[in-house]
Amino acid sequence: MSSVKKGLGKVEVALRWDPSPMGAPEHDLDLVAAAYTEGAGYAEPEYVVHFDSRSPDGTINLNRDSRTGQGFGYDEVMTLEFDRLAESYTRVVVGVVIQQNEDRKTFADIENTGVRIAEGYTELATSDLAEAAGGTAATIAEFTRDPETGTWEFRSTIRGFDADPTSFAAQLGALS
């Protein structure tokens, strides 16, 4: 009997953090995703999804955006629909970046950070971003399409960067 490899369909990436202390500048963390086409490897992404944007075909959406971390549970949520993503895309990398104001902040400066990656009720990964504590940005997930079966696979990849939001978008797909 042969087995059929299903691969990933609709995945949710969620981010949480505690608000800054009263009177301090707000903590603003953002989920970011970059999509790469076949042959692009680790070069420039075809497009980047971040706050106030979505993928051109609507398969990657930032459904919830927070600028303060206030609220219950997860403050930012991104949905990735791999079962609808065009065949030309072979890799998607997701990261988190801290918007920097006057004071430089790292993940170590922000209380109760957490990431959850799930497909339906199946939790694929969780992290408190401790592996990237000294960073101002971090990759958190890499999704790749198997060239033979066409199915999408997940790899947890927590890697810290010292980058602002603009430069991080360019570094997001760097070989980890």
From TrEMBL:
Gene3D superfamilies named in the record: sav2460 like domains
The species this protein was found in: Streptomyces cavernicola
Database matches in Pfam families: TerD (PF02342)
PANTHER family attached to this UniProt entry: CAMP-BINDING PROTEIN 1-RELATED (PTHR32097), GENERAL STRESS PROTEIN 16U (PTHR32097:SF4)
CDD domains linked to this entry: TerD_like
Residue ranges of every copy of the TerD domain listed in the record: 4-164
Family: Belongs to the CAPAB/TerDEXZ family.
Protein name per UniProt: TerD family protein
